[in-house]
Structure formats: C-alpha cells, structure tokens
Specification:
The protein is an alpha+beta fold. The longest helix has 17 residues. It has a domain of about 70 residues: GMP Synthetase, Chain A, domain 3 (2-Layer Sandwich). The relative contact order is 0.13.
C-alpha cells in the first residue's frame, strides 16, 4: 500500500493535469449551448410583428437569421438590433436573409 502511495506522490503533477483535462472536457462548451440559444432567439423573433417565421444560426463569428420579414428594410433593422442586443455581436456580424417560399 505504501508503494502505491509513493508512486502516486511521484506522479501527482501529471495526474493533476490529467484530472483537470478530463474536467474541462466534461464541461459544456458554447457550441453545445448554441442550439438552445438559436431556438429561443428564433422563437422570440418569430413572435415579433412583421418578422414571420424565423430560423437562427449562431456561430463563433456571427449570426444568420432567415425570415419572411427580411423583405422590409425597417424589419431587417429591428431584427439586427434585437440580435445584437441578445448575442453581443456587432451589426457587421449579423446577416438577415429572406426566406424562400
């Protein structure tokens, strides 16, 4: 038993690094949370007057919104402002596209 404890003491730093690495891998990442974020943002936009049905994709570099209301410039601006407020992305990182029917 003492031999095992001595060997563990000798390898305590590599074991600590291994445990920290495993803990970091088990933590949910931003990418894992993105679908919930996309769904809630899409639902909120869909409830907004003039937007129609909205689909949202969020990545590390920006947001894409596809909706019926993108045909109107004022509605597009409102969508960009709402997405900017919700996600923190700048207006240049948000794209609003017209939905194909």
């Amino acid at each position: 038993m003492k031999d095992v404890i001595e060997k563990l003491k000798a390898y305590r730093f590599p074991l600590l690094i291994l445990l920290v690495g495993v803990a970091l891998m088990l933590m949910p990442s931003a990418a894992a949370r993105a679908p919930a974020r996309e769904n809630s943002l899409g639902e909120a936009l869909s409830l907004t007057q003039g937007v129609g049905e909205a689909y949202v994709l969020v990545s590390d570099s920006g947001v894409v919104v596809v909706c019926d209301g993108a045909r109107d410039a004022a509605t597009r601006l409102e969508i960009i402002m709402a997405v900017r407020t919700y996600t923190g992305f700048g207006a240049d990182q948000i794209t609003v596209l017209k939905r194909n029917r």
